[in-house]
TrEMBL record:
This is PF03932 family protein CutC. It comes from the Bacteria. SUPFAM superfamilies: CutC-like. Keywords: Cytoplasm. The keyword Cytoplasm applies. Belongs to the CutC family. It is found in: Cytoplasm.
């Protein structure tokens, strides 16, 4: 019997994890800096999200930008992986590429090894670095040999719907690895992604929080271009619930 497609929601707070759990998510991916593509959360944030939500997959990414990491960055992320697992994460979300666009198998293996060092079951997901690989299908084909649990992908396209054909090819190339569609996913595109072979879907279900300021707005660093945009994202319960409904109908 085919397993029910899973729903993963990207969240940035314990409140987001709780909202995701209450409205039908099977798990959450926890990060900070969602507007930067996601960065590693703190140990305290991980612990609070684990307390509040469904199984927590922790994104481990030490900086924004490309996915070509040097030895110092890989060592830092391996330490973050061990910290995330110690803080109660059910899994970690990792990835790295070589300068010529191939999967950095040595880095990925080192990060996966760090995840499993605790001696308990820990899921390991390859994040969307795969979508910037020279050949995402070839990269996915390496994952069973590395012992990874799943891969999050848009099929190398701007959105998962545009990459649906390649998502199907990745699922065929990586038996035993859960292929999770992510990237511009909306509830009304879920059925198409499941039909393409996605075993799970990932979306942020985000909306901007209303600013709470007692004084005048002053731009700080590279923050929002306006007072209205200079805020943070929160999880929209209605989007999570609708995604759950559409996924159940598709599955």
């Amino acid at each position: 019997m085919t397993a029910r497609p899973a729903l993963e929601i990207a969240v940035t707070s314990p409140a987001g994890a709780r909202t995701a759990r209450e409205h039908g998510a099977d798990r959450v991916e926890l990060c900070t800096g969602l507007e930067l593509g996601g960065l590693t959360p703190s140990a305290a944030l991980i612990e609070a999200a684990v307390e509040a939500g469904p199984p927590v997959q922790v994104l481990v990414r030490c900086r924004p930008g490309d996915f070509v990491h040097d030895a110092e960055e890989i060592a830092l992320m391996a330490t973050d992986v061990r910290s995330a697992v110690a803080s109660g994460a059910a899994g970690v979300v990792i990835g790295a590429l070589t300068a010529d666009g191939h999967l950095d198998v040595h880095a990925v293996a080192a990060l996966a090894e760090a995840a499993h060092a605790a001696g308990r079951p820990v899921e390991v997901t390859l994040h969307r670095a795969v979508d910037q690989a020279a050949d995402p299908v070839a990269a996915a084909a390496l994952l069973p040999g590395l012992g990874l649990t799943r891969v999050l992908t848009s099929g190398g396209a701007t959105t998962a719907v545009e990459g649906a054909g390649r998502i199907a090819a990745m699922a065929a190339a990586a038996p035993g690895v859960e292929v999770m569609a992510g990237g511009g996913v909306r509830p009304d595109t879920i059925a198409e992604l499941v039909a393409a072979g996605a075993a799970a879907v990932h979306l942020s279900a985000k909306t901007r929080a209303a600013p709470r300021r007692g004084g005048d707005w002053v731009p700080l660093g590279a923050g929002g271009a306006s007072a209205e945009q200079d805020t943070h994202f929160v999880t929209d319960p209605a989007v999570v619930a609708e995604a759950r409904r559409m996924l159940d109908a598709a599955g």
